[in-house]
Amino acid sequence: MTFESLGLSPALLKALADQNYTQPYPIQMEAIPAILNKKDVLGIAQTGSGKTAAYVLPILMNLQDIAPSQNRYVNILVLVPTRELAMQVSEVFYKLGKDLPRRIKTMAVYGGVSINPQMMRMNGVNVLIATPGRLLELTESNAVHLSDIDTLVLDEADKMLNIGFKEEMNRIIALLPKRRQNLLFSATLNEDITAINQILLHNPLVIKIEPEEDYFDLIDQLGYFVSEERKGPLLRYIIKSQDLQQVLVFASSVYKADTVADKLRKNGIKATAIHSKKSQGARTEALSKFKSGDLRVLVATDLISRGIDIKFLPHVINYELPRSPKDYIHRIGRTGRAESPGQAISLVSPEELHHFRIIQKKMGKPITMIDSEGINLKGF
Ligand code: AMP
Q1: What is the pLDDT of residues 166-210, one digit of tens each?
Q2: 332 alpha carbon to ligand 1 midpoint, in Å?
Q3: Pocket of ligand 1 (CB under 6 A)
Q4: Are residues 201 and 232 located together in one domain of the fold?
């Protein structure tokens, strides 16, 4: 199947060629025709499956036929859980929409930065990508109106419908017109989708792209059995002795992320922490330096475990285990992408061992464990 046969316009085909997308991915083959036909879609697919372009392309195409947004009435609303994902999605809209005959104005809005410039730039926005809290602030000050929304997208839908966002999501949904197209995408989704069907979806096309059987085989998963006190030295030992050059380390709290990054720097390893307490400027800079290979280690909380696309990231290390097997999947899914293999290492303390067994059971396969007791960590 080709992108041409999916009915995309020459301008979009040109943008795809510029991005070196030669063939549609499976989720794109199924979602694009349905979205062009204005159907609701529930897409369950891993990050890395191409789910962003699967909704961006048909939305851009449909937008060519919609009366342009006026007076701060936006056409398309994409809701995402984090600022980083908002920026990433808006880049995809920009890259794929750049050659369209009718210019599409895309804007990403999120908290943590001043609201005034966002208010001032809102006029004529067609596609708004937003985190819920900031979107509500903007609607409350009449900087944006949602009553003409043609299509609503929830990216990382399970997170957006999670208890943490529930109240904000209810308030946002109440501001949307009843008749609209709904597109929900997520790598993981709770079994019970009836609630989602009732509130959000109208006779949807459900697309489930099973990760290829060997998807997780692309990721070499490894566990080190290690006491809590030896985790820091072991982390530095792994990075230095294997000469790892681009490593994403996950910690369970803001405090821990900061301490781990500090210790790495003190030991001569270029590292920065990224978490919710950092300024937006610092977050953006850290992520872009890390993506470009300028920063050797990024120490993150689960803030960036979802949806963030880092090409060819070879190593993910869980300094501490995530709370749920679902988060484990999101975290290790940062590596082993785009057909390039990756390694996911977990540092497992005695207290975490039971939890690690549960994760392994959910993953459906045992993970090789190394006892770090015999490793000499002196000097690390
Ligand atoms: P996503 O799942 O949307 O985060 O996309 C994962 C990665 O796949 C991104 O880096 C995209 O640029 C890339 N991608 C998406 N669709 C295609 C395609 N049809 N051909 C090649 N690369 C693609």
Answers
A1: 899 999 999 999 999 999 998 877 666 676 777 788 889 999 887
A2: 17
A3: 21, 23-25, 28, 47-53, 309, 311, 338
A4: no
